[in-house]
């Protein structure tokens, strides 16, 4: 059974004395670490710019900070600090979007929608960008970045997924999309929470005798070009689905790979189509209205693969 | 002041003069942030030739004191100090306009030995200093962290997030020097007033001293008295003159010398031209 973020962080910290936790009003995430190693847990209050700068300083002193804030704010408010102090500054800091990935906090309004988190982090040279889809992938992502000496962003986006396999039979490789369902007609790339929508769409398409292939694109950068191009060859359509603007996110990344390779396979990018998701409603209501659902996948596939 | 102290002050004054000469040579007739480099030259002399533990042979030595130039545009003075301290040969500092030089237009840790943090965008350095000081404390080590801030830079709000956190975490191994030259692209107090500046730092929980940033005796005494209070970070507000030592560029942010004014600047600094 996959462990929670804070349990994994403590385990990693026991093995690696460089690891410390830095919180931007997110103490719960580092509380177990703080209990065991009080001097290695730092609270900074609501101050994202300082969170990243302080983490850069800790890294200058040889530490490996996990810097935790809320997804929309820890990627936008301190973008320049991440870009300049961590990217250009070559600092071994793991930035964690701890809560509020994508449209998770739908009803709290557009201020709380992390609809640019992947795109912004992907822009920065040397950044590793991860959006795991469930607890298993989150644990694996944390263990993977802890072995690397570079800045990384992990959006804690995942929930419980009907993957259909015990964890002992799953595998995770950073930079390699995880195949969750195999098929020949259409490839669906989800990331984070939308992997659940992709898995549901798989079942719905099967009822229509359409065979879908579903990947969790847990690593957005480096993007898995090989799998994207293989899918472009072996299936007739590629769908990306994300709780993110389609500009610069998963859909953008996949489009770049296809275009660079001259692959002519049709691509449909489901996500926010250059709009703010400005409405009152639940997470599901917003997904419904903006077409980020299993039904939207099925409709899109049905229209194109008639 | 006893004779040893007087000798030290004289020696550090001469190093400061050497830094200023190199800054003017770096500037040459190019666009250069000369004024803000000259205003902090005396402090850099005291830091690099008296106060800070550094090893030019091993710039990444674990036991070093850290210096973070948050006002990264005034890197010519830091390059000059590092060269004079032996981190790289003096003649290298004037290669900053050459392809692939190790001397950059803003502080660049990737290229220049002895520079710990790449800066240029204002309002980043103090947070990094706070983190470094916290890391040192985690190591139970005694290194200190010095952060040089511009006064105009303090208009960036990020500084005050950092200042708040430094006192909250009781970082008495952290020292801020504000190069209070009172000019940014124009007069700071007219553009966005900072006064009462010492009170601002005090109210953020710092122990504060205001000094004449060109009085070497005061600079040395002040640096020897850090931390000013146990359990508090120390802030030195150094009243300085932008362009100090070269009268033609006083209070200029980015003055450009011509052939004649360049010679005059060097003569004014005691060089034979």
Task: Describe the protein's architecture and organization.
The complex is a heterodimer of chains A (306) and B (273). In chain A, helix 8 links the parallel strand 8 and strand 9. Chain A has helices spanning 5-15, 27-36, 48-60, 71-76, 79-88, 117-122, 135-146, 194-207, 225-234, 250-261, 283-289, 294-304; strands at 19-23, 41-43, 64-70, 94-99, 128-130, 152-155, 178-181, 186-190, 212-216, 219-221, 237-245, 267-272. In chain A, the strands form two sheets. In chain A, strands 2-1-3-4-6-5-10 form a seven-stranded mixed β-sheet, with helices on both faces. In chain A, strands 7-9-8-11-12 form a five-stranded mixed β-sheet, with helices on both faces. In chain A, helix 1 (5-15) packs parallel to helix 7 and helix 8 packs across helix 12 (294-304). Chain A is of the alpha/beta class. With 273 residues, chain B is α/β, with parallel strands linked by helices. Chain B has a single domain (3-268), classed as 3-Layer(aba) Sandwich (Rossmann fold), CATH 3.40.50.970. Chain B is 40% helix and 11% strand. Chain B has a five-stranded parallel β-sheet, with helices on both faces. In chain B, helix 1 packs across helix 3 (41-51), helix 3 runs parallel beside helix 4 (75-85) and helix 5 packs parallel to helix 6. Chain B is globular. The A-B interface holds A 20, 39-40, 42, 44-45, 47, 49-50, 52-63, 65, 80-81, 84-85, 88-90 and B 66, 109-110, 116-118, 120-121, 123-124, 126-139, 158, 161-162, 164-165, 168-169.
Quick overview of this protein structure:
With 306 residues, chain A is an alpha/beta fold. In chain A, 40% of the residues lie in helices and 20% in strands.
What is the H level of CATH, i.e. the homologous superfamily of the largest domain in chain A? Thiamin diphosphate (ThDP)-binding fold, Pyr/PP domains
Instruction: Please report the number of helical segments of chain B.
Output: 10
Average pLDDT of chain A, to the nearest integer? 96
Low-pLDDT runs of chain A: none
Question: What is the domain tally of chain B?
Answer: 1
Structural class of chain A: alpha/beta
Estimate percent helicity of chain A. Answer: 25-40%
Question: Secondary-structure element order of chain B, as H and E?
Answer: HHHEHHEHEHHEHEH
Number of strands of chain B: 5
**Proportion of beta-strand residues of chain A:** 15-25%
How many DSSP helices of chain A? 12
Largest interface: A-B, 29 and 31 residues
Global shape of chain B: globular
What is the typical, i.e. mean, pLDDT of chain B? 96
Describe the largest sheet of chain A: 7 strands, mixed
Distance between the termini of chain B: 35 Å
């Amino acid at each position: 059974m996959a462990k929670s973020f804070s349990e994994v962080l403590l385990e990693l910290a026991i093995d690696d004395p460089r690891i410390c936790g830095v919180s931007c009003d997110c103490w719960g995430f580092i509380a177990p670490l703080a209990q065991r190693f009080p001097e290695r847990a730092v609270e900074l209050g609501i101050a994202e710019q300082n969170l990243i700068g302080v983490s850069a300083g800790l890294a200058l002193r040889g530490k490996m900070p996990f810097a935790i804030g809320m997804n929309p704010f820890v990627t936008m408010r301190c973008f320049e600090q991440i870009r300049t102090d961590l990217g250009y500054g070559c600092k071994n800091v793991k930035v964690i979007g701890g809560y509020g990935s994508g449209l998770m906090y739908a009803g709290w309004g557009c201020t709380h929608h992390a609809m640019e988190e992947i795109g912004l982090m992907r822009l920065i040279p040397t950044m590793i960008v991860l959006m795991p889809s469930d607890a298993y992938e989150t644990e694996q992502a944390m263990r993977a970045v802890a072995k690397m000496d570079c800045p990384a962003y992990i959006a804690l986006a995942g929930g419980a997924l009907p993957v259909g396999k015990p964890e002992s039979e799953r595998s995770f490789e950073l930079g390699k999309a995880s195949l969750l369902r195999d098929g020949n007609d259409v490839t669906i790339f989800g990331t984070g929470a939308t992997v659940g929508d992709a898995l549901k769409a798989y079942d719905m398409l099967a009822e229509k005798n359409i065979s879908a292939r579903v990947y969790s694109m847990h690593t957005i950068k480096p993007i898995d070009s090989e799998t994207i191009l293989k899918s472009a060859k072996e299936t007739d359509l590629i769908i990306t689905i994300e709780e993110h603007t389609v500009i610069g996110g998963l859909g953008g990344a996949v489009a770049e790979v296809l275009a660079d390779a001259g692959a002519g396979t049709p691509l449909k990018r489901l996500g926010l189509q250059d709009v703010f998701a400005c409405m009152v409603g639940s997470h599901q209501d917003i997904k419904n209205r903006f077409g980020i659902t299993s039904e939207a996948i099925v409709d899109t596939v049905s229209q194109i693969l008639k | 002041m006893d004779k040893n102290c007087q000798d030290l002050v004289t020696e550090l004054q001469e190093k400061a003069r050497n830094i200023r000469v190199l800054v003017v040579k770096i500037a040459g007739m190019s666009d250069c942030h000369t004024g803000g480099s000259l205003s902090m030259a005396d402090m850099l002399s005291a830091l690099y030739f008296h106060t800070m533990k550094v090893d030019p042979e091993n710039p990444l030595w674990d036991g070093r004191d850290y210096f973070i130039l948050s006002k990264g545009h005034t890197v010519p003075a830091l390059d000059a100090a590092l060269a004079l301290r032996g981190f790289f040969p003096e003649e290298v500092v004037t290669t900053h306009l050459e392809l692939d030089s190790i001397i950059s237009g803003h502080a660049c840790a990737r290229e220049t030995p002895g520079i710990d943090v790449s800066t240029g965008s204002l309002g980043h350095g103090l947070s990094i200093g706070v983190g470094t000081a916290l890391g040192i404390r985690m190591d139970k080590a005694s290194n200190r962290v010095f952060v040089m801030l511009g006064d105009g830079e303090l208009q960036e709000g990020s500084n005050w997030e950092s200042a708040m956190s430094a006192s909250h975490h009781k970082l008495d191994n952290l020292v801020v020097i504000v190069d209070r030259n009172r000019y940014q692209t124009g007069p700071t107090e007219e553009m966005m007033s900072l006064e009462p500046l010492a009170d601002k730092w005090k109210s953020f929980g710092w122990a504060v001293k205001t000094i004449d940033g060109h009085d070497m005796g005061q600079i040395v005494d002040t640096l020897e008295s850090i931390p000013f209070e146990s359990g508090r970070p120390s802030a030195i507000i150094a009243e300085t003159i932008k362009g100090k030592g070269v009268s033609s560029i006083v209070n200029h942010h980015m003055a450009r010398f011509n052939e004649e004014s360049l010679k005059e600047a060097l003569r004014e600094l005691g060089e034979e031209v």
